[in-house]
Write a structure and sequence with these properties.
single chain; alpha+beta; 60s Ribosomal Protein L30, Chain: A; Phosphoribosyl-aminoimidazole Synthetase, Chain A, domain 2; 2 domains; 7-stranded mixed beta sheet; 6-stranded mixed beta sheet; 10 helices
Length: 328
């Protein structure tokens, strides 16, 4: 089968169709486009999400914490703790295990999140480290956000820009792919410092947005497809409005990457009827944000390219990182 997430069709057929029990105190159940479960805890809700890191080598502990906590933030929740599962190959050293755990603890501490436990195992079933993190968060019951709340005519606001996580992985693990671009430690730190969307997620929920989705596999177009599908709507994305960091641009040109399809933890896609006001508020928090499109009542999803051409956005968008890794 193809590397990456299952297509929505296969996910529905092979996984979701076999889930039959639904409790009344679970407010958001497993479903297409929803990355978190939401459980009724009275005046508050408990938000839970799980994610693995499978496409990176360097800094996988840091990436794993951010990716899981970002899902909680996309529901407007504040992450409280994480459970960590480490599946490690027989070739790993004690020093490498310590390095992963130091990265996990340092990143979690920076977010004010506790490492609650988990499982660590050396197994012959894997040849590379697999880190899976489950994040647990909380939010007021009256103000949590889902991916399914988008409304026709909503502005689509993107924080930070495209390709943040994918660019960092390429720069750290495959510097030989772009030897002419000098990637300094300062450049890497710039990308690492933009991997979290917790701040904007919590603030956007308080602001009163309709829907949110963090931008992970499949990039901006993948996030737009999942958000619109969950909301039963369509969208129009304007490529010229999407901010691209210089290093992301360089990789896009050299490797023929579509940056709108590149893994981008650190960016949040937000649906709101007050896009200009939200952009201004986020700027006041030091978070750059841009209106890059709108939700449409017509369920067609499309991206308008810089040259004026238009393309339909499929429900399943394969991430450009997987294509690059497959070609190596």
């Amino acid at each position: 089968m193809r590397v990456g997430k299952l297509s929505p069709e296969l996910l529905q057929e092979l996984v979701l169709s076999h889930i039959s029990v639904e409790r009344d105190d679970v407010l958001v159940h497993a479903g297409l486009g929803e990355d978190c479960a939401v459980i009724d805890f009275g005046d508050e809700v408990c938000i839970i999400s799980s994610d693995p890191i499978t496409g990176a080598v360097t800094g996988i502990g840091t990436l794993a914490v951010h990716v899981a906590c970002n899902d909680v933030a996309a529901c407007g929740g504040s992450p409280v703790g994480i459970q960590v599962v480490l599946l490690l190959p027989e070739s790993i050293t004690e020093e490498q295990i310590q390095e992963i755990m130091i990265d996990i603890q340092t990143t979690a501490a920076g977010l004010g999140v506790e490492v609650l436990g988990g499982h660590t195992e050396i197994t012959s079933r894997v040849t590379e480290c697999v880190v899976a993190v489950t994040a647990i968060g909380r939010a007021p019951k009256a103000s949590f956000v889902t991916s399914s709340g988008g409304q026709p005519g909503d502005d689509l606001v993107l924080t930070k820009g495209a390709g943040i996580e994918g660019t960092l992985i390429l720069a750290q693990d495959f510097p030989e792919l772009l030897p002419e671009f000098r990637v300094t430690p300062e450049v890497l730190d710039w990308f690492k410092g933009r991997l979290s969307v917790v701040k904007e997620g919590v603030h956007a929920a308080r602001f009163g947005v309709h829907a949110m989705h963090d931008v992970t596999e499949g990039g901006i177009l993948g996030a737009a497809a999942e958000l619109t599908s969950a909301s039963g709507l369509g969208c129009e994305i304007w490529e010229e409005k999407v901010h691209l960091p210089d290093l992301t641009k360089a990789y896009a040109v050299k490797l023929a990457i579509d940056p709108l399809k590149l893994l981008s933890s650190g960016a949040m896609l937000i649906a709101t009827d007050r896009g200009v006001e939200l952009v201004e508020e986020l700027a006041g928090l030091g978070i750059p944000a841009f209106i890059i499109g709108r939700m449409t009542e017509d369920t067609t999803r499309r991206v308008v390219r810089r040259d004026g051409s238009s393309e339909e956005i499929p429900l399943f968008v394969q991430d450009e990182l997987w294509r690059i890794l497959a070609e190596k």
